[in-house]
Amino acid sequence: KNFSKLDEVWHLSEVFSLRDYKWEIWLHPKSSLYKDHFIICLEVPDRGTLPSGWCRNARYSFTVVSQIDKKLSITKGIYSGYNATLIS
């Protein structure tokens, strides 16, 4: 997709399962913090319905592929902790 043509709102993927855990991807095409950047995150759906004390850790990466020049493609990895209310 051409991210520059997306509305300036959060776009959420369909919920998907990986190793019996549910996830979704959130994308915001225009960061208010950094000009010419977009935000992409891995999130836990329906976090507010999870029991107190619930937590999960994940190591993951996203790759953005340039359709113009594959050399411009970029991969970023992260290790993140998730709990019932906040991202840590």
Automatic annotation (TrEMBL):
Key words of the record: Coiled coil
Q: Where is the MATH domain?
A: 1-88
Supply the InterPro entries for this chain: MATH/TRAF_dom, MCC, TRAF-like
> Entry's Gene3D superfamilies?
Apoptosis, Tumor Necrosis Factor Receptor Associated Protein 2, Chain A
Q: Which domain of life is it from?
A: Eukaryota
CDD domains for the chain: MATH
Q: What is this protein called?
A: MATH domain-containing protein
